[in-house]
Amino acid sequence: MISVNDFRTGLTIEVDNGIWRVMDFQHVKPGKGAAFVRSKLRNLRNGAIQEKTFRAGEKVGKAQIDNRRMQYLYASGDQHVFMDNESYEQIELPAVSIEYELKFLKENMEVQIMMYHGETLGVELPNTVVLEVTETEPGIKGDTASGGTKPATLETGLIVQVPFFINQGDKLIINTSESSYVSRA
User: Fold this and answer.
1) Going by C-beta distance under 8 Å and a sequence separation of 6 or more, which residues neighbour residue 111?
2) Any stretches that span the bilayer, and where are they (predicted)?
């Protein structure tokens, strides 16, 4: 058990028969009444996001999540196959459970698979990934003074806003939590 006063971003907890990751939290001490913790939680089983308020000092169960380093191999219909780098064991995850993560996954990419007592919860992406631009409008010389952006389609199908100087074939560093352009690779 862990006190809600010890919450930190990324902590996994068990609440209401679900496995939740703390995305954001705020300790509130009103002038009148008892202190409480307002939190934003993401369900690791279905991806739902919920805001929940706990009384200060309330205890919740801490979920022990095992991260296994695996390699994304390929898509087989509606299933996506991952291989454990040490045991070569393969697991399949349905596309609906990793819909967001698929925007960043390339074949042979290494990721962390979250496991909870043998149950596969999902894929944990690195903070940034390198993806190639497959389609974008050509930049026009002298068009960078305004600091504007244009849409670019990446090799995984993800569309991000990029600066005008980015061209087709460029490799870009993409932030996975915000689906945003960081820089050229």
Assistant:
1) 69, 70, 71, 72, 82, 101, 105, 123, 124, 125, 126
2) none
